[in-house]
């Protein structure tokens, strides 16, 4: 079993102002920029904090933050000359997504920055159905996207730098936006019968997965914006989904206490990870064994998963072993995300806090590195068509690890 995750740092919002609504302090989303230089935190009360990464010592000692040092300083040391920014969004913030970094050599148009083309941007999904798009370096609002009729619960940028943005909403639709065309709405994806909680674009930009308050997840083509298939296997609402870094695997998490790992190309279920109560000696949650899942995410090398559940635990799973290899006690967890370069995990809570946990640092085996490189451009069907031994095909398609 891996070492228990250590709490490296915890950030807490400052004293909230007086608002008319009561339930507005949750951290529904946290996100790292793809290069790991910025961290975004929806800290409740309509505010998003943009924090340069690594965290600065001065920042950790200020009123709005609290650090719990467990002897590991390297992961939270200060860095860079960028300044923390506060984005006043005017509505409760539910979803966050950073754009990929602009391609090298991108030039500005007519002397003015083309939004997202020459800068890193952050999209925020709001309570009133709007999406506000911000320039990270300056904290400037670039534009607002209107179309959704209810809460924008999640957002996902295409990783290829095309500035295609997908939004998931409680209005039961997903919408596709092209930010390189001033936020033009490209497509509306309908078919869900419940609130859409989560959306995830595959790293190769060929597929989109969406999870709603239904027992199945939907898999869409990012080329034709049509439904490929429904992934059926859960016994309750699917609430979170994520693709592996090579696009060869998809995981879905549900209120049924299970994570299912799928081959997105064939729709086949490869593994089921069940969240069972811990033995009494390890039980951090008292009498509570409500293991409804809230969030799931892949580690950067694709060999581990992190999950947050209502039983007050952060779990780290080894996909080869099919079991959790580490646990950490956390209360009221809502979301989790890995640092892009590995080594730790950020989690958000109902109290508006964000916590940073150590995670196993993995040196991938040569054979896994080769598999990951091949699967980045080969589908399952293409692998099965190769003139290679059956055992090698099973390994390359993750039937074996």
TrEMBL record:
<dbReference type="InterPro" id="IPR001680">
    <property type="entry name" value="WD40_rpt"/>
</dbReference>
<protein>
    <recommendedName>
        <fullName>SOCS box domain-containing protein</fullName>
    </recommendedName>
</protein>
<dbReference type="InterPro" id="IPR036322">
    <property type="entry name" value="WD40_repeat_dom_sf"/>
</dbReference>
<dbReference type="InterPro" id="IPR020472">
    <property type="entry name" value="WD40_PAC1"/>
</dbReference>
<dbReference type="Pfam" id="PF00400">
    <property type="entry name" value="WD40"/>
</dbReference>
<feature type="repeat" description="WD">
    <location>
        <begin position="145"/>
        <end position="180"/>
    </location>
</feature>
<dbReference type="Pfam" id="PF07525">
    <property type="entry name" value="SOCS_box"/>
</dbReference>
<dbReference type="InterPro" id="IPR019775">
    <property type="entry name" value="WD40_repeat_CS"/>
</dbReference>
<dbReference type="InterPro" id="IPR036036">
    <property type="entry name" value="SOCS_box-like_dom_sf"/>
</dbReference>
<keyword id="KW-0833">Ubl conjugation pathway</keyword>
<comment type="pathway">
    <text>Protein modification; protein ubiquitination.</text>
</comment>
<dbReference type="InterPro" id="IPR015943">
    <property type="entry name" value="WD40/YVTN_repeat-like_dom_sf"/>
</dbReference>
<dbReference type="InterPro" id="IPR051983">
    <property type="entry name" value="WSB_SOCS-box_domain"/>
</dbReference>
<dbReference type="GO" id="GO:0000209">
    <property type="term" value="P:protein polyubiquitination"/>
</dbReference>
<feature type="repeat" description="WD">
    <location>
        <begin position="286"/>
        <end position="320"/>
    </location>
</feature>
<feature type="repeat" description="WD">
    <location>
        <begin position="231"/>
        <end position="272"/>
    </location>
</feature>
<dbReference type="GO" id="GO:0035556">
    <property type="term" value="P:intracellular signal transduction"/>
</dbReference>
<keyword id="KW-0853">WD repeat</keyword>
<keyword id="KW-0677">Repeat</keyword>
<feature type="repeat" description="WD">
    <location>
        <begin position="122"/>
        <end position="144"/>
    </location>
</feature>
<dbReference type="InterPro" id="IPR001496">
    <property type="entry name" value="SOCS_box"/>
</dbReference>
<feature type="repeat" description="WD">
    <location>
        <begin position="189"/>
        <end position="230"/>
    </location>
</feature>
<feature type="domain" description="SOCS box">
    <location>
        <begin position="365"/>
        <end position="401"/>
    </location>
</feature>
């Amino acid at each position: 079993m891996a070492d228990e995750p250590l709490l490296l740092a915890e950030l807490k919002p400052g004293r909230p102002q007086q608002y008319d609504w009561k339930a507005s302090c949750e951290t529904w989303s946290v996100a790292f920029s793809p290069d790991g230089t910025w961290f975004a935190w929806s800290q409740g009360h309509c505010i998003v904090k943009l924090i340069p990464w690594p965290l600065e010592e001065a920042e950790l000692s200020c009123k709005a933050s609290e650090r719990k040092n467990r002897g590991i300083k390297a992961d939270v040391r200060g860095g860079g000359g960028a300044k923390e920014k506060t984005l006043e969004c005017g509505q409760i913030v539910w979803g966050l997504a950073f754009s990929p970094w602009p391609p090298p050599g991108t030039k500005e148009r007519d002397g003015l920055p083309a939004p997202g083309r020459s800068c890193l941007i952050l999209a925020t999904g709001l309570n009133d159905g709007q999406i506000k798009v911000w320039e990270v370096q300056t904290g400037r609002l670039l534009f607002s996207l209107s179309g959704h009729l209810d809460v924008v619960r999640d957002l996902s940028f295409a990783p290829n730098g095309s500035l295609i943005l997908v939004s998931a909403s409680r209005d039961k639709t997903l919408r596709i936006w092209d930010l390189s065309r001033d936020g033009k709405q490209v497509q509306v994806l309908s078919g869900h019968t419940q609130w859409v909680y989560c959306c995830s674009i595959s790293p190769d930009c060929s597929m989109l997965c969406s999870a709603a308050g239904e027992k199945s997840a939907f898999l869409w083509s990012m080329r034709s914006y049509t439904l490929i298939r429904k992934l059926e296997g859960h016994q309750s609402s699917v609430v979170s989904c994520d693709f592996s870094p090579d696009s060869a695997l998809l995981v879905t998490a549900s209120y049924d206490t299970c994570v299912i790992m799928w081959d997105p190309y064939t729709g086949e279920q490869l593994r089921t990870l069940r969240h069972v109560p811990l033995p009494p000696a390890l039980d951090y949650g008292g009498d509570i064994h409500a293991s409804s899942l809230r969030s799931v995410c892949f580690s950067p090398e694709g060999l581990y998963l992190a999950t947050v559940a209502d039983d007050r635990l952060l779990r780290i799973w080894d996909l080869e072993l099919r079991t959790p290899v580490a646990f950490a006690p956390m209360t009221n967890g809502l979301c989790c995300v890995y640092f892009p370069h590995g080594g730790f995990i950020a989690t958000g809570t109902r109290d508006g806090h964000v916590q940073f946990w150590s995670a196993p640092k993995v040196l991938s085996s040569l054979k896994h590195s080769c598999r990951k490189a091949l699967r980045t451009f080969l589908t399952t069907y293409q692998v099965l068509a190769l003139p290679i031994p059956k055992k090698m095909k099973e390994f390359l398609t993750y039937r074996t690890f």
